[in-house]
Design a protein that fits this description.
Layout (H helix, E strand, L loop, with lengths): L5 E6 L5 E8 L6 H14 L1 H7 L7 E8 L2 E7 L5 E6 L7 H19 L10 H4 L1 H15 L1
Antiparallel strand pairs: 1-2, 1-5, 3-4, 4-5
Helix pairs in contact: 3-5
Length: 144
Amino acid sequence: MSGNTCYFVIVGHNDNPVYELDVKSGGADKQEDKKHLNQFIAHAALDLVDESKWKTTNPYLQKVDRFNDYYIAAFVTASHMRFLLLYDTLSRGGEDSIKSFFMDMYELYTKASLNPFYELNTKLTVTSKHFDTKAQQIAKKHLL
């Protein structure tokens, strides 16, 4: 993605953020405000994601919401964990790159959740630094 904003979040069953990744951010002085804005926009789309997930059997919901110049794409796992991606412009791969990103993140999340020491709906970064490193690699591969 060539734009300034690309924010990924895994949202748990209680609407709690399980994992957050800011793929690309602006200046350091506005980074904290931008982080909170990204969280607000992503969580505001949760109702639309919950409504849309019952209308299709496809886990990839594409663009579920738009806020000004930001778009929200969603992916819902079989266990109803919600993956949200906030972005302002598409990469050269377009929708296919976002779908590939979600599929790779779903595979990574599935492997992490199979860990017997991982408790569902808890932060992944506490349990696995490897998860964070792999997530950043996947984001760079598909979104940048």
